[in-house]
Inverse folding.
């Protein structure tokens, strides 16, 4: 079966491509991530995927990036659900690509991460699947996460320290500043 794999980054693709190929899926990658900020980070992740795809003989479709404005329109006023909207944006584009190119199903490397919400990913994937009439392969791939870390290290792939969006970068920076300062932590109200 031909499977289109939405790829957020090269490291997450490593063990997942291996696992899917072991199940005899014919895997093609799809890189579409307008959420990644700043552009230098986006390009580093894209380059890491190029390196992995070359080594793994993985064909990759490079989605036309709509850029940060499209992502921000989707999530700017949805603070509580920004990840769900981000998942939806990327999975809808993946499903659209899968349908237009005759893939049998699609899935995402986001399912390998212990930091992502599997329930929301499944919901976003099912919505995209219904809209574009191509099945979404939902599975908890988190048991592959440790292997992906090992493989990405051994391949020397760039590994990021945050999800990719402006908001996760801000959260990470706040946590680092808070950890460095003694005394009580103060949080900024997020409207939640």
């Amino acid at each position: 079966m031909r499977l289109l794999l939405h790829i957020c980054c090269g490291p997450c693709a490593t063990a997942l491509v291996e696992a899917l190929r072991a199940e005899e899926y014919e895997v093609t990658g799809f890189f579409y991530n307008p959420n990644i900020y700043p552009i230098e980070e986006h390009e580093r992740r894209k380059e890491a995927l190029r390196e992995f795809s070359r080594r793994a003989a993985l064909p990759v479709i490079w989605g036309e990036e709509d850029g940060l404005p499209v992502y921000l329109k989707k999530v700017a006023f949805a603070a509580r659900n920004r990840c769900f909207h981000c998942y939806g944006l990327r999975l809808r584009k993946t499903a659209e690509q899968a349908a237009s190119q005759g893939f049998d199903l699609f899935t995402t490397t986001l399912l390998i991460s212990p930091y992502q919400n599997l329930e929301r990913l499944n919901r976003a994937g099912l919505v995209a699947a219904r809209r574009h009439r191509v099945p979404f392969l939902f599975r908890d791939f988190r048991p592959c996460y440790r292997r992906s870390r090992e493989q990405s290290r051994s391949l020397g792939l760039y590994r990021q320290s945050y999800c990719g969006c402006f908001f996760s970068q801000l959260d990470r920076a706040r946590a680092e500043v808070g950890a460095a300062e003694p005394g009580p932590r103060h949080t900024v109200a997020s409207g939640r």
User: Anything to note?
Assistant: Residues 182-192 have pLDDT under 50 and may be disordered.
